[in-house]
Fold this sequence. Notes:
By secondary structure, chain A is an alpha/beta fold.
Amino acid sequence: MRGADYLVKTLKDHKVETVFGYPGGAIMPVYDALYESGLRHILCRHEQGAVFAADGYARSSGQLGVCIATSGPGATNLITGIANAQLDSVPLLAITGQVASNFIGTDAFQEIDTYGLSLSVVKHSYLVTNIEDLPRMLNEAISLAQSGRPGPVLIDIAKDVQMAEMPATTLAYCEKSSPHQDDQQVLVPPSEVISKAASLLASSQKPLVYAGGGVGIAQASELLKTLVDTFKLPTVTTLKGIGSIEGSHPYNLGMLGMHGTKSANLAVQECDLLLVVGARLDDRATGDLKQFAPYAKVIHIDCDQAEVSKLRLADVSLVGEMKEILSAIIETVSGSFVHQTAHQWRHSCLTNKEQLGFRYDAPFSTIYAPLLLQKLSQRFQQQPAIVACDVGQHQMWVAQHMQFDSCQHHLSSGGLGTMGYGLPAALGAKLANPELTVINVSGDGSIMMNIQELATLKRYNIPVKILLLDNQRLGMVRQWQQLFFENRYSETDLSDNPDFTELAHAFGIQSKSIHLAAQVDDALDDFLSSEQSFLLHVAIDPDENVWPLVPPWQKQCRLSR
Amino acid sequence: MNTNTYKVVTRHASGTLERVLRLVRHRGFEVNYCFAQGSEATNHVEKNMEIILQLSSDRSADNLYHQLHKLVDVIEVRHYNAASIRSSLSHE
């Protein structure tokens, strides 16, 4: 058995069913092993498309995403996607071919120090130059990507290792030893720390839950809902926390932060206790840290000790297995406080939510994107859909105006904010969830960053829907130029965009264009009823901005609009 | 600017020193002193590396401690004061 055959066999042994990639010289032995292996390989049209597709596959399924590329440019093209997975804690295995081990360090053709490049964007990485190391490193890589706080792991395999015969002794040793187990034990905080948290919660007059992406990763949504329901706790979510509690839940005040809802941000500024669950207090969520939640004590629950008290000192840190911690808190806190002390607070939060909610009564004949997205969201009240966003104004409109009941249904590049993420991520998500409708909501800037993946949709007949909101601008950058750079619109005009419907047709994908509000309902019918991929091009007003906006580095109650 | 000293024990994997120094730089710490030495593997003990770092920064030393701990190849991280480091080196 060659190293490349061992790689493919091991992926299959770990129940990997689909991988995404792009072949090239230094990875050819692996592609030879893939041939007729039964492992489904999706040929994307750019390595960045492959890594984002693997990311979308992983986020929407909770399974490991796997991508493969060759050395040199193949590896460098993966880097953005690996960084994207690192900042959003996505379980990803990136496999790269490397030049033969005796050529490493000689500036050989398509040689780059992939291992060195990876260091700042991975959870861990390996360079395999000896066939005997391959089993240990590969099994560790697969395990590490998925354990604890998930993340991307890169394994760079020299071409001679891919072609080398696995020594019988190594193989026998591997088969005898059990699969690598991550040696991190499941951490549960001591009961006295749980009691301290419970006591803070019970004595709080204005408690607020701050739920992040860690809730979905830990599969702790049900327990979070139990906590929120049991103690009737107003809740705000981060961008990645959207879906950790149902969008329609009465105590869900929506997303906090720069483009958060008014009721969420006001609650943060007024609360006296912030229960942070699986979040890292990112600057887009907190604004100026010195002015963030100024009256609040903080209880911080996370599996990663390095995130607790990183930016805001926690009064109680609960590091460990989130489900265990939430269960322990629910068990420990007396339910009586909610009826006596927090009633007024809850009433105030819910009144703000009702009175300061979004309005959709735009009096124009053109298409108002927030209303369009709200209508789209309403179509999925019975049967959920997955939405993969790109990055920009449309991303914030999705977060504000669509509702999700699962973190796995809202795929958004939160940490890295990577334009071009949405289309390939949607492609990966559809392959992982063939029974669900999968929609890529994109903008005219973002879609062009990985437009080539339309060819992948067509090649494999993957029926992803693309809702393209086209304002002929790099809208979010333009918005900031308008607000903070005196209307100096430097390099944000895209009015020479291609004809997107013709472009879709050229790839063999159905498409339609609309520009009037009166066209929306019929267009959504066509869009959603099509059994094939469909690109719905929607022309919107370039002057429409994302509101509300907390200006950067200011406190959350400084809301514009 | 605060000065802190750490002893970091790692698996002696290729690139580990690079990984530790990258993290230290990226998290906003300046290296005043660095000493690294690999141990020989024996039948029972994996080959390890011991790294002594004296670092300056306005950033939180505790945060760096936890970040170092997160590195997969790191086995142990300890805080030392400067006097105890000099003492331990003079005995080696």
